[in-house]
Amino acid sequence: MEKENEITEIAKTESGFCTSINEALNATLDCIEKKAKKRDMSETLQTGFGNLDFHKGELIILGAWPYIGKSTFAISLIKQIAVDNKNAVGLIIPGNFDNSQVSERMISMCSYIPIEKIHNAKLEDSDIKKIHDAATKIYDSPLYFMNTPNCSLIDIKIAIESMVKKKAKLIVIEGFEFLEELVDSEPEWYRASIESILNNLKALAMEFDVPIMIVMDLPRPEDACEPRLTDFKKYMIIPRIADKVLFINRYRNKDNFICQEAKLIIAKNNNGSTGNIALLYQIRTGLFLDRARDLEAV
């Protein structure tokens, strides 16, 4: 009996030991009301692709099988946000993707001139004018680069801090596997290194109150028709840590050399719904478009 009295006293005196539903409900309602009031303060960033929004402090994974177009989708996304909507974006490139490649691809997407023509300089006078018009549009866009091969987490933190000071609403990291911590990691510690890096990047997203999107390769299984969370296999820690996991899939049509059907798969979303967004892929420019909105542009 004495023991029961002790337990009762603890329940009475320890704050939070026993909570009623009305207390929990009041706290939840307060949280909802605060979020509703903050909605006018740009808590979300519209991507321009369906109903997909990015939230402050999110860690986002964008994955795809090899040669599907994850990097060009990332550039299409940056174009939509930074060039078309004038929201600042920071692009961090630890790998072998350089600034000129991004600029050329962006010009191709904005001018609708095939990237091959730009590479080979097989241009007509009308093409030159379109390129200049596209460059003028891109020139004033709030897009910032950090291109440092095999950069470290410390380098990334410094870059993010600088980009956020320039009002960056999104940070994109292209070439995750080239980060110094992964390049130098021993095979037996590789998984632990990935986990540590992702946790640190998630902490940076929350510290700087900005979404961070990591672009990475996804192993292609033999039996799959489209990418899925289980494709991460022994690195399932990746989707567990991420707030959003996005996949790109493209359906190659050998009879169509202009445009192909594609799909953006929202496989995990802690701040919204999952599902698919129909896309169109312009083969000659690498531009991904929202099928429902941009069908006439193809």
Automatic annotation (TrEMBL):
One of its GO terms (biological process) is DNA replication. It comes from Treponema ruminis. This is Replicative DNA helicase. The keyword Ion transport does not apply. InterPro entries: DNA_helicase_DnaB-like_C, P-loop_NTPase. Its EC number is 3.6.4.12. PROSITE patterns: SF4_HELICASE. It is an enzyme of class 3 (hydrolase). One of its GO terms (molecular function) is ATP binding. Residues 38-295 form the SF4 helicase domain. It holds the Pfam family DnaB_C. It comes from the Bacteria. The keyword tRNA-binding does not apply. GO terms for cellular component: cytosol. Keywords: ATP-binding, Helicase, Hydrolase, Nucleotide-binding.
